[in-house]
Amino acid sequence: MLTPEFRDQLLAESPGGTVVLTMFDGQIIGITPGQWDTFLAELDKVNVPSATLQNVRRKALFCYAEVVLDKQGRIQLPAHLRKSGRIDRDIVLAGVGDRFEIWDKDRFESLLEQSDADVSEEMARANIALPF
Fold it and tell me: Residue 10 and residue 7: Cα distance in Å, rounded?
């Protein structure tokens, strides 16, 4: 079931309740159809993409699926995404800014247990100042 915030955003951009699901960065992501179109347009800006970027595009296109929210704001995961996302049984739906990610519960819990690498230098190069 989608969170009310994302459901409201989605319905504002896609009155029919269509969500685009695909794989990105090893996870199933959910975005609006407009975000999908923008994503493809941005990838097409690269004249000679690296093999890695070509594979990102291939995976995203192969895993592409449009699903429609039911009246309770739920979506059904297609089988090819359940397999690609290594979804076994229980999931975690994580809001990540203007998209959501669908994780296998055990994989998500493992992620939370991992020690975060020191990203202070990367943040400094990007001029990111944390408010806390």
Answer: 5
Q: Do 99 and 30 touch, CB atoms closer than 8 A?
A: yes
DSSP E strand stretches across 25-126 = 27-31, 65-68, 91-96, 99-104
For 33-52, how does the pLDDT look when each residue is reduced to its tens digit (9 = 90+)? Answer: 999 999 999 988 988 889 99
- What amino acid occupies position 78? P
Domain boundaries along the sequence of the chain: 4-125
Go through the chain and tell me how many residues it has.
Answer: 132
Fold classified for 4-125: Chemotaxis protein chec (3.40.1550)
Q: Which amino acid is at 9?
A: Q
| Full-model pTM | 0.81
